Amino acid sequence: MASKLIGIDIGTQGTKAAIFSEDGRTLAESFRKSNLFQPEPGVVEEDPEEQLDAVCNTIKELIDKTSTNPVDIACIAIDGQMAGVIGVGDDGMNVTPYDSWLDTRCASYIKQLKAEAAEDILNKTGCAPSFNHGPKKIWWKHEQPDIYAKIKSFVQPGGYAVMRLCGLRGDQAFIDVTYLHFSGFADNRNSKWDEELCKRFDVDIEKLPRIVRPDQIMGQIIPEMAERTGLKAGTPVAAGCGDTAASFLSCGAASEGVCVDVAGTASVYASTTASFGVDEKLILGCGQSAVSGLWHPYAYINGGGMNLEWFRREIGVILGAEGLEFSRLNELAAAIEPRLDDPVFVPHLAGRNSPAQPDLRGSWAGLNWNHNAGHLFRGVCEGVALEYRIYQQTLSEMYDGFKPVEIRITGGGGKSAVWNKIKADVLQIPVIPVDRQEGAPLGSALIAGKAAGLFSDLKSAADSWIKKDAATMPSSDMAEHYSGRSVRYVSLMDALNSWAESL
């Protein structure tokens, strides 16, 4: 009986794939770097066919590395970047590039949606208008009408790759439920498109794809793609889910109260609840979990994890930080004795998403001549944690005193002991790295196993596959310090956003 599973993640930095045994052992991994096009300020695109090439090449490498007989692959599932869109034509081929979640061209349409229907969009989708599907679809309609006319449906990178692997046409396009909060025009509670919102903004509802569950089989590998991937023609392919939903699942966030920190390109903070929630402050979105019946209220910092690499690459050189390695920068940050008047870093170099403040940009505030590279790098780490504190407080308000049990961390940033300690102290809850570092591909593989019938439910499968490492515990004597730092941070955000909007 076929029992091996492949999970693929089409991420911002690249496509990562892994092959697993039925009991959760990682047999091999593969990676291909992304090719982001930034032809002008605000524009960030990828070629969907290059993303497909990366999917095919990583699958083939996994099979070759493990000498796997293709008949032993029970199913594959693909997750991907969530807030961007690809327009596909009647034949299922892309007619637009991938309009990335990092692309900010649609900022003026965010303002339009907020002004005309922010409350309705929030209450129906669970997410306020931001750099996500709704404003992007409207941008294509008004700014590129000739291309828009050729679009049969809008999909995301994971869905596009599945369509191509299975030879699906444009009228077979799909979106799974974990993306709906980013859609702009969905009734998320009921997993369907909202006709009133579509009509209000003159959105062609026929250009919106069918809505499916992550573990629904969407098709089988066609012969052409079997040759490109090394898979057997006829291998089933599941719908998959959004990359953050897959990352949450890969941490075992399948029970109420378990929080997740995805310390990757985007810094994502999420919790797990048993009900849909609406944040009237427009900070937290609420998306469906890959686990049926659960929800993930969450928010993210656009490129929050990228800030650390940017600092190392660009700022560290100027400051002469020794070695320019993260290990050295972490040492410098750990050596700082925290003070209330330490510089505050604004982590929103590409605009703020949660809430949507697209004009806000990054900065340090409160610098003096005693501050050094350690202070600045610590500020970069702390800025993410202080933003997370806002998310956590908002979560408590949404769910009437809801208290997280723990925060599980995944992604490259989870390797930083000093960053984990800052987060634990700022949030005053245990920070626990998971012992699995495969990330989203592991979550996708669990979904593939459920789709193939190897697992009866995702929670029990995740519990058996995923173990926790030692917790970083919060220091109670830092609670007052970070209460004061949080007040400074919130005040700075308000002042800087008013200044940015005035320009």
TrEMBL record:
Transmembrane segments: none annotated. Keywords: Kinase, Transferase. Residues 6-249 form the Carbohydrate kinase FGGY N-terminal domain. The keyword Methyltransferase does not apply. One of its GO terms (biological process) is carbohydrate metabolic process. InterPro entries: ATPase_NBD, Carb_kinase_FGGY, FGGY_C, FGGY_Carb_Kinase, FGGY_N. It holds the Pfam family FGGY_N. PANTHER family: GLUCONOKINASE, SUGAR KINASE. Belongs to the FGGY kinase family. This is FGGY family carbohydrate kinase.
